[in-house]
Amino acid sequence: MKFRSSKLIRFLQTIRQPFFLLDGNAALLFCNHALEEWTGCQAEQLVGLSFRYRASVSRQKHEMIAAALAPPPEVFQGQRCRILLTIDRVTSQSRRYADFVPFSASQNSNGVLVLVDELEAAAASPERPETAERQAALDIHQALLSFRRRQAGRFRWDWMIGVSPLMQRVRRLARLAVDSTASVLILGEQGTGKEHLASAIHYGQSNDPPGAFVPIECQILEQELIVSTIYAFRKRFQREETSRRHTLFLKDAEALPGTLYPLIAEFVTASYANQRLIAASTLAPDHWTNHESFPVVLGTITIDLPPLRRRKEDIPMLAQMFLEENNETANRQRSGFTSDALDFLVQYYFPCNIEELEQLVTESHRKSETTLVTAADIPIRIRNVWEAAAQVPADNKPIELEPFLQNIEKELIERALHLADDNKSKAAELLGITRPRLYRRLEFFGLIDSEPAEN
Q: What is the pLDDT of residues 80-118, one digit of tens each?
C-alpha cells in the first residue's frame, strides 16, 4: 500500500488528531504531523520501521517510539481494541488512549489504522474494556515498558528485572558498584545472571565509550594462562589516558588456585583508576577451599543474586520480557500469558533459574496457536512435575518443598536416561534441556563425576 495522491496526503496532514497506518507486518506506512508533534519524532525516522509488540531496550528515540506505539497482537487477528499509550518526554510522560482498527485494503493487503486521542489520558477513558485475561497480560506489558524506560538511562539490566525486595537490593548495590572502583563479588546459583550483572556494572559506569570487558574462565583455564591474561590486561591498559574503565571478570572465582592470591590481591589494591575487578561464584565464601582471604579481597562490594524460586513475584514480568523478545525474532506475535499458564511458571521450582525460564518461554511461544500463551502451551515436563508434587503422602507429614521437588527432578532425569539407553544427548532432548545443562544437573545429583567425551 502506498500513498500516491498529494491531495490526499495534504488533507490527512490537516487532521488535528494524531493517527498512523501500519501494514500487515506492523511496518509504518504513514503518520500525520499531529503524531510527529505528540511523539517528537519525524515521520522519515519512523516510516518502514516495524512496530512489534515488545519492551524495547534501545536508546534510539525512534525505536523506543515504535515499541511504545506497537499494537497488541490481537489486532492482527482482526480484533479492534483501545489501549493506553505512553510517550516519554525529557522531564515528563504523555499518556493518551488509542483505538487500533484492523482493516482489509484488498484481498492480499491488510493493515491497522491507529487513532490517538487528542486529549491526555486524564480526560479520556477506554470505551471497550479488554477481557480479564487480556487486560492482565496488557498490564504486565505496560509494567515491563515502564520498568525498562526507567532503567534505560544508565544500565543494561537484561535479566535484572524485578519488583521484589531482593532484586531492589541487588540494583541498589549495583548502582553503588557502578559509581565505585572497588572490587565486586557476585554470588548466585547457576543461571541467576551473574555475568549479565557484571556486564551491567561495567557498561553502566558513565556516558563515555565503555572500556574492555575481559572474562576469565577460572574453572577451565590453567594457572599459567590465567596469570598471563592478568599481566596482559594490566600492561595493555595501565598507560591509557582516557577516562574509560576496563573490567577483568573472574568467572567461577572459587576455582582460582590459592597460589594466585598474592597476584589477585596486588591487582585489586593497585592504584590503576582505569582498571577494576569483578568476580563471580556459585559457592558461598564459606565453601571456598582455595584461600581463606580470596572472598575478602574480591568482595569489597558483595552482591547476592537470589534464585528465581525466592523471588516468584518477578516471574510474570521476566516471562513477559522473554515472550516479547521472541516476538522480535519470530513471525508470529504473542501478547502475554493466561493466568493458569502463569500459575504453572510461578509455582515451578526452576532449578536452572532464569536460563530455564527463558527456554520454557521460548518453547511456549513456539507452541502457542493463539495470541495468549495458555497452560496447554507450557512444556509437559513442567506440568508433570506439579502433578507429581500434588500427590501428597497419605500420612500428611510436613513436606520440605525444595528437597521434594529435587527428588522429582532427579527421578525424571533417571527416567530420561533409561529411555535414551544412557545417551546423554538423547536424554537432554527428551527433557527439553541442553546437554551442558543436563551434565550440570547430573553432577548436582551425584549421578556423574565430570563430563565425558561425546556419546
A: 999 889 887 766 788 999 999 998 866 667 899 999 998
pTM: 0.77
Distances (CA, A) of 233 to 191, 216, 243, 294, 338: 27, 11, 16, 20, 50
* Whether the Cβ atoms of residue 350 and residue 382 lie closer than 8 Å to each other: no
DSSP labels, 252-304: TGGGS-GGGHHHHHHHHHS--TTEEEEEEESS-GGG--S-TTHHHHH-SEEEE
Domains and CATH numbers, the chain: 6-129 (3.30.450.20), 165-305 (3.40.50.300)
Spacing of C-alpha 349 from chain mean position: 19
Cell numbers describing residue 441? 544437573
CA distance readout (Å), 114 to 16, 117, 123, 173, 449: 14, 10, 19, 42, 59
- Written as nine digits, the cell of 240 is 591509557
Find out whether 358 and 192 touch, Cβ atoms under 8 Å.
no
Are 341 and 364 a contacting pair, CB within 8 Å? yes
Distance CA 315, CA 333 (A): 20
- The residue with cell 528437597 is 403
Which residue shows C-alpha cell 521437588?
405
